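Anyone up for a design puzzle?
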């Protein structure tokens, strides 16, 4: 290949490369997580879990779109205890294991974070931004609730905690969320979750294309890359360096990953592209990123990280 060093770290946890899977696609059971373990993904990231196992929303709940996908999965998962039990097997792949938790209440999140604090998991990503549960608002859009949850879950142990954020679209929201994050020992944020409650209509059938919530679902893939880049950039400018940022949203090639690097991401996650192309995407995107950076004369991620040039 070439000599560009793509190694990075999140909260002191070393990653061999810049690119890992995102919570969401194909990371719900041991078989799927083993495929990720055997791939070039820099870490093994689990599907968001809840206290009890869930079947998720009614089908069809996922549809490919030309530039991405729309989905309303509804948190199908095996329940957090199953992921706790899987950790020793997952650790055997010799790469960090990141668990995603998504409780329905502060109490749920306290129970799950406490349990994973006692485990061998490397990082805990707390999902404040699932858009697809009927009757449940996204915590990340409720700043009071966000603060209450952060106060509770960051006081439960020393393992690094990160927060999966919803996309924001207004400068006042970036500032409000950054000011809350600064008050707690949050080690990283993951930006962004899907754009919630979008609607795709099939004009032939005159119906929505997914079943749950009357067709409203999270928009993913290339459509959302400019929003992901803006969220990473805005938070990088507003937060101090002690909170790292994982970028996610529309990364399907090495140049996409490089754009997130310029915006300030310390690592990136791949969701829809992994869903559509399978586990070889991690190696391909890594090779493309290394080649693109080598052609620019860069040796490592730090040469370009956060260095978006003014126009
Ligand atoms: O399972 C889902 O429906 C889902 C989750 Br938990 C999330 O965080 N984001 C998303 O787009 N879908």
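Challenge accepted. My sequence:
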């Amino acid at each position: 290949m070439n000599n560009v060093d793509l190694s990075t770290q999140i909260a002191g946890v070393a990653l061999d490369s810049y690119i890992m899977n995102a919570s969401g696609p194909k990371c719900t059971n041991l078989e799927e997580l083993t495929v990720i373990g055997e791939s070039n993904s820099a870490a093994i990231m689990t599907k968001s879990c809840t206290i009890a196992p869930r079947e998720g929303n009614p089908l069809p709940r996922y549809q490919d779109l030309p530039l991405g996908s729309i989905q309303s999965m509804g948190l199908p998962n095996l329940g957090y205890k199953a992921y706790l039990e899987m950790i020793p097997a997952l650790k055997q792949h010799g790469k960090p294991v990141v668990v995603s938790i998504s409780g329905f209440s502060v109490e749920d999140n306290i129970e799950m974070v406490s349990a994973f604090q006692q485990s061998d998991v490397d990082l805990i990503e707390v999902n404040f931004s699932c858009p697809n549960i009927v009757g449940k608002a996204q915590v990340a859009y409720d700043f009071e609730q966000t603060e209450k949850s952060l106060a509770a879950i960051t006081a439960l142990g020393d393992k690094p905690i990160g927060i999966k954020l919803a996309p924001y679209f207004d400068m006042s929201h970036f500032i409000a969320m950054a000011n809350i994050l600064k008050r707690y020992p949050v080690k990283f944020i993951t930006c962004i979750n899907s754009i919630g409650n979008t609607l795709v209509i099939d004009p032939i059938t005159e119906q929505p294309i997914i079943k749950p919530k009357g067709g409203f679902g999270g928009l993913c893939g290339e459509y959302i890359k400019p929003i992901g880049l803006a969220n990473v950039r805005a938070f990088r400018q507003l937060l101090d360096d002690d909170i790292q940022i994982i970028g996610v949203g529309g990364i399907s090639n090495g140049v996409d990953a490089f754009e997130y690097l310029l915006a300030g991401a310390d690592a990136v996650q791949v969701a829809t592209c992994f869903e559509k192309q399978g586990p070889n995407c991690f190696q391909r995107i890594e090779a493309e990123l290394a080649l693109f950076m080598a052609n620019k004369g860069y040796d490592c991620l730090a040469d370009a990280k956060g260095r978006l040039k003014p126009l």
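A detail worth pointing out: Residues 280-295 form the longest helix (16 residues).
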